[in-house]
Amino acid sequence: MSVTAYVNGRVFTGETDPARAWADSFTVDGDVFGQVGQVGQVGRVGDVGDEATVDAGEVVDLGGRLVLPGFTDAHTHLLHLGAALGQVGLTDARSLDEIQSRLATSRAADPEAPALRGRGWLFDSIPGGRPTAAMIDAVIADVPVYLDANDLHSTWVNSAALVELGITRDTPDPIGGSIGRDEHGEPTGMLWETAAVQYAWAQREASATDAERDADIERAISTYLEAGVTGIVDMAFDEFGLAALQRAAERRGGRLPLRIAAHWLINNTGDDAQNLAQVDRAIEVARASSSPWLRIVGIKLILDGVIDACTAAMRHPYADGSNAAPIWPAEQLFPVVVAADAAGLQIAQHAIGDAASALALDAIEHAIARNGDLSRRHRIEHLEYAAPGTAERMARLGVTASMQPVHSDPAIFANWAAMLGDERVERAFPWPEYEQAGTLLAFSTDAPTAPHEALANMYVASTRASALAPGVAATHPQYALPLASAIGHATRDAAASVGDGAWRGRIAPGCAADFVVLDTDVFAGSPEALLSARVMQTFVSGERRHG
Known about the structure:
The chain is of the alpha/beta class. The protein folds into three domains: 3-64, Urease, subunit C, domain 1; 95-206, Diaminopimelate Epimerase, Chain A, domain 1 (Roll); 208-539, Metal-dependent hydrolases (TIM Barrel). Helix content is 32%, strand content 23%. The protein has an eight-stranded parallel sheet. α11 (390-397) links the parallel β20 (379-382) and β21. α1 packs across α6, α9 (330-342) crosses α10 and α14 (454-463) packs across α15 (483-490). The radius of gyration is 23 Å and the shape is globular. The model is unreliable at 40-54 (pLDDT under 50).
């Protein structure tokens, strides 16, 4: 197998050793990196500090361009992203009039569609933060309309959708969720948390065809490769996602164009036997996932909601005096965590509020006490507000902090802050705390709850300014990270978050040859270069997959 030498570049390797953090050349030997370092002349690539050389079958002159390790989106939803890319985008629709206008325009463009779906709306774009079915009915009343909130934790529907879902004043609230109701008990058009999942999302899954899911998967894969993402960690994986990705692999002779590690979603049914049966299914599919391109590595548990909707579980009430209980009480959570931990599955727990993150760590400590000394690397997702000392506790337990810089974008922060309304706002998304505590910190986007673009994510991480609305003042700039650190968390550490740190996520000898070439050196000049830079080429296992 021939060796290709890439020379005359500015190569950020992602290595933690400062002496090896930068190089100007490297070789690709088959599907892995060979030598990485400095080059004296084309075709002779030596390791840093020695005279080692290789015979390159091909020499590629990078022309001084910046090369980075391939990004791993450590928390995303591939099938949902593909679907969302084909829906009406509402994140930047910052008024009810604009939302209604976009819905009406979309309906007029496809008047034969049996339903309309949108995504990404923000609570503070709605008068009083209280969406109603009547607001949608005013522009579309003849077909069901389903609008997922930006955080994917609630769905806003019109009256036709309520009829389609069979939701009436007599419909009970599901465990961990609620149906919005007016003072007379009538449904208002809001489905919160598990009500969105069990009604709106279930209807979508029931009505979608395999062909539509296949199109969604292909759209998402292509979009990620264009963004320089070479690996993803899919959260809330299920039978539909598994089947769609297996078909995608079959279309390519068993190999996917990027690396996928997935966590099987476990829903709290309120019945321990049913909950443990879901864990058994996760164990079954994990043991059957032998492909290095598609692995089921663990389970996903959603412990609470989101701060924007006051559904995240907090130790102290929100500004309006309300609070939310965990979706998984300890007595139902602990048996699931113990069973998954004993089976060697990684446990990823969605915990946005400080009460939820404390509960997540309690569950992990309980599993350690029950199962003893096992090799484990569990994770907590989001950690938007966690109590002081949480990072240190996670470091002691070897728990990864999986966080999303784009969720702290100042353009969408005002509602988040208003819901808490006290000193807790000053400790929002404090990434340096986790670095200082020695906690593994993995960055991701949680797409489609936020933009999927890796470079925009790095802009927010390194500035705390807005990628959605450039010019909006930074929020909590003291929590911004150096760009090299941010990229390390989104490449090296994101790969390590699913146990892959030894063999990918860095441009280093023997690591998988996953890398991207940019048209701009984002380390030079102003940080805004991250918003205009483009990925020229994306390589996975040494093969060019984009560009």
